[in-house]
Amino acid sequence: MTNVHQVADTGLRDTATSAEAPVTASPRRHTTDWHLNKVIDGLREARHDWRQRHGRELELGSRELPSHAAIHKAMDTLCGILFPMRLGPPELNKEGEDHYVGYMLNSVLNVFHTQVALEVDYKKNGATSIDPLQAVRQFAERLPQIRRTLDLDVTAAYRGDPAATCVDEVLICYPGVYAVIYHRVAHEFYKLGLPLIARIISEKAHSATGIDIHPGATIGQEFFIDHGTGVVIGETAIIGNRVRLYQAVTLGAVRFPEDESGSLKKGEPRHPIVEDDVVIYAGATILGRITIGKGTVIGGNVWLTRSLPANSQISQASSRNSRDCVTDDCLEISTRGKK
User: Fold this and answer.
1) Which residues pair with residue 105 across a beta bridge?
2) d(CA 162, CA 279)
3) How far apart are CA 114 and CA 243, in angstroms?
4) For residue 322, what pLDDT band results from cuts at 50, 70 and 90?
5) What DSSP string runs through 81-92?
């Protein structure tokens, strides 16, 4: 293709331009009056009405809530701190690991201290006894154990997936591992009584992976989510050690209890307990405060609302159309001998 600048020098600019690329007129600068005063007034009134309904007329003049942007950036850095040579900056070498970890950890903890203080201040009138500085110190002290727990999760993922070529591939590529890293961190903030920061962290992983783990969920060691998209784990779920889930598994609530006023009760145990060494295959839905016994295997697309004994194997009955299988009566359950 002829270069336009070369064409200009030959005196054929107009011919070349029309033959090779249509001329596009530069967009004009618009000075349209959008009559925004009415819109701005309406938005101000909507904010005022909301604040009045929720007792928020005395909102601070500055930011009151933790910042998504600040926490997301801190989490990206924290992943590099936990795994410097694999998730840290590309120019890092082993000789500089400790310096990098110390320098960046100081920066990240300062960010978290600011965000924790915002969440504590948000809980009005001294309704919380949380000391932001002490809370962040406690979080920092947990980081070595978080790293050791994540090492076990990464190893479980490598051992549980025949397609995995090495543990490094699992760590840097697998969405299930990404989601578990974020959950381990979010869960620490949740236990410290900081649910807003915990939820911001968990929802970043949810947005990135399609895996929705509530930061309140309690998850044991050597946990692996394979593929992962569509997995949902509720707030009060308890998961034991060496549990493996596949895509689109739901550990949810079957019903939501209400108080005298008709509002949903908060914090009630309503999600499953999954004991050690359980495998749950793709699309299974397990609802309510039921217990899945140790060593159980639950097949794909099973819908379950009752407890199972240890070492059960459960699948949809082959004699029934799976589209009609909406109750436990449609299932075939067998109990294996103890291992």
Assistant:
1) none
2) 15
3) 36
4) very low
5) HHSHHHHS-TT-
